[in-house]
Amino acid sequence: MLLELGKRLESIQYDQLPEKTIEKAKTAILNFFGGCLAGADDALTMAEKAVWESQNCSGDCVILGHKGKTSPMAAASVNSLMGQIFLLEDCHENTISHPGVVVIPIVMALGQSLNASGKQIVEAIVVGYESIGRIGKVLIAPGFPTFGLRPASTMAPFGGAAAAAKIMGLKAEGISAALSIAGNTASGVMEFVNSGTVDICLQNCFAAKNSIMAAMLAANEIQAAPTILEGRFGLGRALNQKELDWSPALAEQPGHYMIDESFIKRFPGCGHVLATAQAATSLVKRYKVDPEKVEKVTVGVSQGAKEFPGVDYAGPYSGTISAMMSHQFMVSSTLVHGEISVDTVKMYDHPEVAKMAKKVFVEIDESVDKAFPHKTGARLTVRLKNGETLTDFQEDLNPLNRDEVILRFRNYAQAFIGAGRIDEVIDKTINIESLESINSLMNLLESNI
């Protein structure tokens, strides 16, 4: 199966991509830049960077918002971690994955070292998303997250390895070999939802490093089990405890690519709590709510959005990760601060937020559940102590559009690369197909501070 998939991925060429797909890739790149820079000065970023510096890594690759250059593997690892710190990444709902936060830093890092063109960058990004989408639509079966493995981290090495192999110029056999090697690293445990620790970010580091290693080994003609997905002891059976039908992974979809299905988060939070954040934000815009006058809040969501590990949690929040996973935090922080943002997430231990979170209860809403997964909505009911009830219903998510993604990038880039280069980064990304070398774009993202 992997060889056939490798042939599909090898055949993806920039000049044959629909305009909508190319534009989606450009927006994903800009969002990745902004999401990374939001966490560029975080202690976790500094720790990961220090590890690589201790290894005396050298190369031509930029760690976003930092001074100096490093090796492709170091840059991909640090940038992928950085992009996950405030959960501002994109989502592929059908696979419960976040392709851009691993695929894009790998492609950019290897692209710099190989002096790749803008068109090659787009091709490789599309290939990475395609690999995650096609394999994930089968591997990530219903109920998968409750088994203990995080879907996004399980899928990341497949997207990263395919994208790395593509940017390195490997043919179908090499791409399929990279995928088979990467299959041995597909993992990422969900236990961080109970501890509030940064495992979710570290999983990106491992995926980035493993992906590049898989592609490099494949380039040296190393081959892992070609039936690692569908074989008797392959990942399909190992992770789902049953035989899976892999034919959808190879289904023809003329003119449609998996990246077309992705969307960009409006709020810093788990994908399953975004509709709740949207409803809470809408409600506080319509009503002036005094948190002290709130008696009880009910959040109505789909079954999946209630049962996903870590999302139905009223605290105490031990860090930003546990807060960003929680429906209760989304509501309570919005009611207290008037918004959900990186700044308010950093105040995860605010006493008023903690007090309000205990008043928030999550339940399955029949109409919201019926519409899922075609629509991801939420119903919010706030009961005040005087008996008054305030409600807000969000039928579906409202992802960021390109203009909003650019605004996000401007907001977080200002402190690291300065105002003078921001417009140039935006222009080069929007016109990436005209770049003979991706270095002319990535060098602008090295800090001059």
What does this structure look like?
By secondary structure, the chain is an alpha+beta fold. It is 51% helix and 8% strand. The protein has 2 domains: 263 residues, 2-methylcitrate dehydratase PrpD (Orthogonal Bundle), CATH 1.10.4100.10; 124 residues, 60s Ribosomal Protein L30, Chain: A, CATH 3.30.1330.120. The protein has 21 helices and 8 strands. The strands form 3 sheets. A 4-stranded mixed sheet has the order 6-5-7-8. A two-stranded antiparallel ribbon has the order 1-2. Strands 3-4 form a two-stranded antiparallel ribbon. A hairpin with a 4-residue loop joins β7 and β8.
Quick overview of this protein structure:
With 449 residues, the chain is α+β, with helices and mostly antiparallel strands. The protein has 21 helices and eight strands. The protein has two domains: 2-264, 2-methylcitrate dehydratase PrpD (Orthogonal Bundle); 271-394, 2-methylcitrate dehydratase PrpD (60s Ribosomal Protein L30, Chain: A, 2-Layer Sandwich).
